[in-house]
Amino acid sequence: MTKEEKRQQEKLVADWQALMRTFIRPENDAAKATLVKYMEQILFGLQGFLKKHVGITEEISLMKLSSGFTNTLISETPEKKLADVISGIVEDVAPYAVNVASPYFVGHMTSAIPFFMVHLKTIIAALNQNVVKLETSKVFSVVEKQVLAKIHRLIYKKDDDFYYKHVQNTYTTLGCFTEGGTAANLTALWVARNTAFAPKNGFAGIENEGIQAAYQAYNVDRSVVLVSRRGHYSLRKAGGILGIGNQNIVPVDVDRDNRINLKKLLETINYFQKAGRTKILAVIGIAGATETGTIDPLRKIGEICAEKKLHFHVDAAFGGAVLVSEKFNHLLDGIETADSVTIDGHKQFYMPMTCGMVYFNDPTSLDAVEYHANYVNRLGSVDLGIKSLSGSREANSLILDSALKIMGSKGYALLIEHGIDTARQMADEIKTRPVFQLVTEPELNILTYRICPENIRLDLDRGNPDKKRRINHKLNDININVQRIQREAGNSFVSRTVLMPRNRPENEIVVLRCVIMNPMTDIKILNEILNEQEEIFKSKFQGYVP
Ligand SMILES: *Cc1c(COP(=O)(O)O)cnc(C)c1O
Predict the structure, then answer these.
(1) Pocket of ligand 1 from Cβ distances under 6 Å
(2) Best of 178, 182, 292, 357 to mutate for ligand 1, by most ligand atoms within 8 A of CB?
(3) Topology adopted by domain 129-393
(4) Beta bridge partners of 510
(5) 26 Cβ partners below 8 Å, 6+ apart?
(6) How far apart are the first and last CA of the chain?
(7) Cis peptide before 354 (omega within 30 of 0)
(8) Model confidence over 109-156: pLDDT tens digits?
(9) What is the pTM of this model?
(10) 410-544 adopts what CATH topology?
């Protein structure tokens, strides 16, 4: 051990004094300057690697990477000082993270965020409010109610009186912040389930007595939720957690454009209602399917649900923010007929990980999941934890509210419109390239396509089923490999998924998927990405095409 190392180690003891120093705020100028220096290191040090790569796989395999993270012992004495921890992260960890901020990272729904979000997130950590109850958050509970009302208004467009009455009403709730879209969907279906199996003569409600007693009281043996085949898998998790079974999240076929087939939906509803003994808890419309960006015909589904008296939930985790764009909000026409709506903050509201939200048309809907505890969340208090799945949680509403103030709805609209416009440009470009086939037109800022050279498309259209299957199989293989090779090269990232045209498993095709969210991603960059894919295909796989 060198003298320096020894000196370092001597300092690093876990004693009371050292501990106290980490809790006391910096008092003198020198201490303050040090902390500012750390913040600089974080804000700018972390940016260094961002310029270089997009993926983690270029220089190091996951296996090699994980071999450096196998020590499972917690050291008894401190290992490092804050400064060393920060530089360790900046130098040894961050370079192997994924550069989601790169304009060449166009594969997923969470990517670049405005730089000011880092500051806002720091404020949240600095104040460390817990919005589960008023006693640990005070003004932040009030801020949350206000932001909830703002977004509720964006969705439901009720009148001034309505918002005046509910914005700070301690007995009603317009919505709830959650960990993410998964928890938001779960909350919506939780409410739908408890409302469908509400207390009645001699039955204390499903939340209290459980599923078996509920089915008995309501004379059914099954409950289902209907959603198109494009439904997000979080809905199946909710089916499991809510005890109805995930096989009862019933997939409804989609039409050629990947929207729920309304005829099939009606047939399915009629089938269950006629047969009896099955309760339909909810019908879900998707506003921005995760794989294709498709938006279901919300107004039509709303009409069906109103007629059949069913809970209508819209999963707008991805697409909800499009409501701020006057140019494109018509795409979500009918969303205001939903009983509940999921929107993710960390997707198109460009918030840092993680933030979900769920909204309800009826400000008393969340009463169906109300809980009280003796020490917090007392009856009639503002305590937000009374009607929320989470217990302790951060004051995410402040981040959203501040971002809305910094950007204005117009600023957000510009971001959203750039994504959609650019996706459309890319779709046009793909159509001019004989190597590629556009699989789904971008309705929002998501498009899917695949490598499928023009000359074999004829065979795919006309060939016998066996031949078609063989060709598709080969193409799937090629697309998987091209995506992988491009990802591993680390210059850009496009994701891939599997689609099932005409709802038939034997038609499964692998597609490449672009999500365009970064304002710095333009058609020039997208052309480079397509060029790279085309080159990989031509140099490695052209000969394999049947
Ligand atoms: C992302 C997404 C979800 C899940 O949200 P998380 O925030 O990842 O939990 C649900 N539904 C849709 C349509 C989504 O795009």
Answers:
(1) 109, 180-182, 185, 232, 234, 286, 288, 290, 315, 317-318, 344, 356
(2) 182
(3) Aspartate Aminotransferase; domain 2 (3.40.640)
(4) 498
(5) 32, 34, 35
(6) 64
(7) yes
(8) 999 999 999 999 999 999 999 999 899 999 999 999 999 999 999 999
(9) 0.95
(10) Aspartate Aminotransferase, domain 1 (3.90.1150)
